[in-house]
Amino acid sequence: MSRPRRRATFVAIGTSAAIGTAALGTAAVVGRSLVLRRRTAGVSELADKIPEHSAYWRDQRRKGGELLYVALGDSAAQGIGGSRPNRSYVGLLAKTIRAASGRTVRVANLSQSGARLRDAIEKQVPALAKLSPDIVTVSIGANDIASFERDRFERELRYILDALPATAIVADLPSFYLGEFERRVLAANEIVRRVAAEHGYAVAPLHSTTRGRTAARTALRDVAKDFFHPNDRGYAVWASAFEPLVRAAVGALVTRPRA
Q1: pLDDT attached to residue 114
Q2: CA-CA to 4 of 20 to 30 Å: which in 40, 72, 162, 201?
Q3: How many C-beta neighbours within 10 Å does residue 203 have?
Q4: Cα 141 to Cα 125: distance, rounded to the nearest angstrom
């Protein structure tokens, strides 16, 4: 994969827009040119991590476990920006499932860096259909915000949610903080919550959880070198939006006999 293609992948990643907005506000304080230089270097460095993270999750999928946790999503589920792949919110939630259940956990992380709804439909949903998961988390759609079209977003989201088990946990989109992208996120999240409610899915409040972090604090503490993706602190924030619902799902599983 050439460097321009890797960079395009990151530009498409929706979560980057949210944190990038905050970073530009911080730039007024710490110096715009310094932030932009660091961002450019960070984009390149993290793009080089994509194959490493993908390989890690492929390896995890091949391992055994008493419980199967399946994740659908994009680069945030892959853990781009974290110090290690397992420091993504998916890795943190897998740890929560192990601790809460007392059982071993196999993780099938079906996410793809840069994935949009249509990518999940084409690749992740067919892969999910071949599995029998105990717990499923879904965080997808942020990469659709740059070209957001309400009807298309709802149509594609419905296709994905139609394919999920009844116990799936669906996250709304993270906060983009300011401007037109945040307005689009609010419109998209109305769709996410409404369609999830129609299906009876629990909704992880990712938007309110990330919105609760001030823009300056997010830019300075919770993001990686590209000022786009979460770092380890940021992924802990993401995981906290899912954890109460994941623990409740585990509670419903522990009464089942071990395989």
Answers
A1: 93
A2: 72
A3: 18
A4: 14
Task: Give bridge partners of residue 69 from the DSSP assignment.
Answer: 107, 135
Report the distance separating Cα 101 and Cα 110, nearest Å. 22
| CATH architecture, domain 3-253 | 3-Layer(aba) Sandwich (3.40)
Domain ranges in the chain? 3-253
CA angle 116, 118, 124 (to 5 degrees): 85
With 0-12 CB in 10 A as exposed, 13-18 as middle and 19+ as buried, what is 230?
buried
Going by the DSSP 8-state scheme, the letter that residue 256 receives in this structure is S
107 close to 77: Cβ distance less than 8 angstroms: no
DSSP 223: B
Instruction: Scan for tokens 């990038």, then name that residue.
Output: 20
Return d(Cα 18, Cα 211) in angstroms, integer.
10
